[in-house]
Design brief:
The protein is of the alpha+beta class. The chain has 2 domains: 230 residues, CorA soluble domain-like (Beta Polymerase, domain 2); 64 residues, Up-down Bundle (Methane Monooxygenase Hydroxylase, Chain G, domain 1), CATH 1.20.58.340. 62% of the residues lie in helices and 14% in strands. The chain contains 9 helices and 7 strands. It has a 7-stranded mixed β-sheet. The longest helix is centred in the last third of the chain and has 67 residues. It starts with a strand and ends with a helix. The mean pLDDT is 84. It is found in: Cell inner membrane.
Length: 334
């Protein structure tokens, strides 16, 4: 799909979904172009439109370069950001003269929001559209990080069973007992930590690509001379990306901490289970020994002929089980 935008009557408007108004277009937005559309655009603009394979290459020279009088800048943007299954896809900004051409294969809401905001009033230049699009995409990354931070806080509360303080002490005690009785699903916790880690790795990759694009765009601005306002916005976006990168590092460290804490909790639970089996084995070992002794088939065993022999054996078995149990409890091992 091809959409062209132009300035008309002091407004930035959609001029059409064909190349008919290409001469007056300020922004040509190309979404999932077909082969025929690519050919038509290349013929009309005299540029080589990169394919999605070329846009996805990780070499800087394949993403940021100048060719045939046009500047190509590719970055990785986030879409489907409402959940953890975020899609990372490339978008290429092509600046040629006073025109901007964008090539993309995803539809993030931040771009649609920018288009709706542009059409409410004012006019835009190609460089202004670039700055606006970058601002919207980076702001969306910030929203994703903010949501992820809140979800990690909730996950931390779940792992460490941290509850909000209650005014009523009796109610608080009742809730505390109920929470202790409720087993925690550590498998679900590990799955959530894994999803958050994968999300942050995509965010980090996107931020790195934005950092490189902004550095390259700042260098290109020297020759294009778009104005101090545009250069100032690029510097502001660079600072925003740096702050988001720092916050991403913090959240990554928090994920590693929560992962280590979860594995530690699992080890503690496993140790507790093994301890129960060990104590049970020690407690039942003396009664088993006594029962084994009196279960031997020897002819001469005086206790077998005693009238109180059977009750005495039972009492010895119970006593031999109670004494180790009380000893373990006294030492605090239970």
């Amino acid at each position: 799909m091809i959409r062209t935008f132009t300035n008309s009557e002091h407004r930035f408007v959609l001029s059409g979904e064909t190349l008919e108004h290409l001469d007056t277009a300020v922004w040509v937005d190309i979404l999932r172009p077909s082969k025929d559309e690519e050919t038509a655009i290349e013929r009309a603009l005299g540029i080589d439109v990169p394919t999605i394979e070329e846009m996805s290459e990780i070499e800087v020279s394949s993403r940021l370069y100048t060719e045939e009088g046009a500047t190509f800048m590719t970055t990785m943007m986030l879409s489907h950001t409402d959940g953890d299954n975020v899609l990372l896809s490339p978008i290429t900004f092509i600046l040629k003269g006073e025109q901007l051409i964008t090539v993309r294969y995803a539809e993030p809401r931040s771009i649609d929001a920018f288009i709706a905001r542009c059409q409410k009033g004012a006019t835009y230049t190609a460089d202004g559209v670039v700055a606006g699009l970058l601002d919207g995409l980076i702001e969306r990354i910030g929203d994703v990080l903010e949501r992820t931070g809140h979800e990690l806080d909730a996950l931390s509360d779940n792992i460490f069973a941290i509850k909000a303080p209650l005014v009523d002490g009796a109610v608080a005690e009742k809730v505390s007992k109920r929470n202790k009785a409720r087993p925690r699903n550590y498998q679900s916790v590990l799955e959530q930590i894994g999803r958050k880690g994968d999300l942050l790795s995509k965010v980090r990759e996107s931020l790195i690509s934005f950092q490189r694009l902004l550095a390259f765009g700042t260098e290109i601005a020297v020759s294009r001379k778009p104005g101090k306002e545009y250069e100032g916005r690029l510097r502001t976006l660079t600072r925003d990306v740096q702050s988001l990168s720092d916050h991403t590092s913090f959240l990554t460290q928090k994920i590693n901490f929560l992962l280590d804490a979860t594995l530690g909790m699992i080890n503690i639970e496993q140790t507790g289970i093994i301890k129960i089996f060990s104590v049970a084995a020690v407690v039942f070992l003396p009664p088993t020994l006594i029962a084994s002794i009196y279960g031997m088939n020897f002819e001469v065993m005086p206790e077998l002929s005693w009238p109180v022999g059977y009750p005495l054996a039972l009492c010895l078995m119970v006593l031999s089980a109670v004494v180790p149990y009380q000893f373990f409890k006294w030492r605090g091992w239970l």
